[in-house]
Amino acid sequence: LEGEERLRLLNYQCNNISRIDNLTRTPNLVYLDFYDNKLHNIDNLDPVSNLRVLMLGKNHLERIDNLEALGKLDVLDLHSNRIRAIENLGCLRELRVLNLAGNQLARLQNLEGLASLTELNVRRNSLAALDGVEGAAKLSRLFASHNRVATLKAVAPLGHLASLRELALEGNPLCEHQGYPAGVLAACHQL
């Protein structure tokens, strides 16, 4: 491609791509979309260090790694993969939005380094508790619907998030208990 070094947006949605490669001539990319492909690994992103948005939803990813060069990343979408653990995100100091919906998460962990994170989507996982979010002090929106949260104790850690303004819990066993909305509001007085 002539002028590819000036590209800022690249969309590779729905292309059966199994490997991220050949990005060395696109250093000015700010938006990269690999939604609905066949990626098993996150690799070869070092050349696109100016990236602000990375869309990797609906692939075959099992791990979060190789993001060290993406210190300017603002949005990371990893929904509908096979990810079991939140890891290797501490290098993403500017990350504001993280979408991990539809994965295989059983715990929220390793969010401490995400000082700018304001939105976290963990819908449709296997979370029984919401502890581990305390490290994301700026979190204002948390979407945790359709998990395994069954008690108010599992929601109590959210009370430490002074910035939390929006919380979605529908589809959790907790929602079947009479009076659960009042209990959640008591635990999360900032809502």
From TrEMBL:
Record carries keyword Repeat: yes
Keywords linked to the UniProt accession: Leucine-rich repeat, Repeat
Protein name (Swiss-Prot/TrEMBL): Protein phosphatase 1 regulatory subunit 7
Organism: Zooxanthella nutricula
